[in-house]
Amino acid sequence: MSKYTTGEIAKLCNVSVRTVQYYDSRNILVPSELSEGGRRLYSEDDLRQMQIICFLREMGFSIDNISKLLNDQNFEKVILMLIENQEKLLLNDIDAQQQKLQKLTKLKHSLKDFDNLTVNSLGDIAHIMKNQNKRKKLLAIMLVLGIIMDVIEVGSVIYGIKTGNWWPLVVGLPIVIALGVFISVYYYKHVAYICPVCHEVFKPRFGKMFWAAHTPNTRRLRCPKCNHKGFCIETYDESVDNKKA
Fold first, then answer.
1. Nearest-CA neighbor of 228 among 205, 197, 200?
2. What is the pTM of this model?
3. Which end of the chain is least crowded, N or C, by CB within 10 Å?
């Protein structure tokens, strides 16, 4: 029967000699015998056990769990339990990594709104990302109300054309106007803007904001602190929640 030295078994399993020695110290791969000179010698069974250990390590199992598994007589139940536990750990890790990836993607997207990047710009981006979900909910509310407005307006016009009865439009138009005013005021109350130059978070006057040129994420405004006029980045206004609290 073949015998392997520490170096040979390490090479066959593509690990370091120190790893083999460490497994010996943890009593999960004890050599079958020692040579007359005191060298560790491993058998074919030891090699197979080492291959199993390496496989389990690749699957993410800890040394402690591998030790429990190899030393437990009730192997079948233990391995199933460990696999389920390891599966949960890996799924949690995947979820955590995906969240980090989403944040990096959002960060990369947010960088496009800055002409000149500085250390302070990262603080602005952190502020924006922190409140991004709240801003999305705000935009979703506006979208729903906008759809309701369109349904009332378009529906009453179509009804009037088909029937000649324009009373639904007469009644619906004030409702549409009222909803439009409500949406505009509600939106104004819940957003603020970040100056890309001095990084001031500010809220402009309603009229200035309403008529300013804008993109989905920015609006052309004048910063009240540094007087810079340009596209400022829109974010959710945290002070609204603070007032509610």
1. 197
2. 0.52
3. C
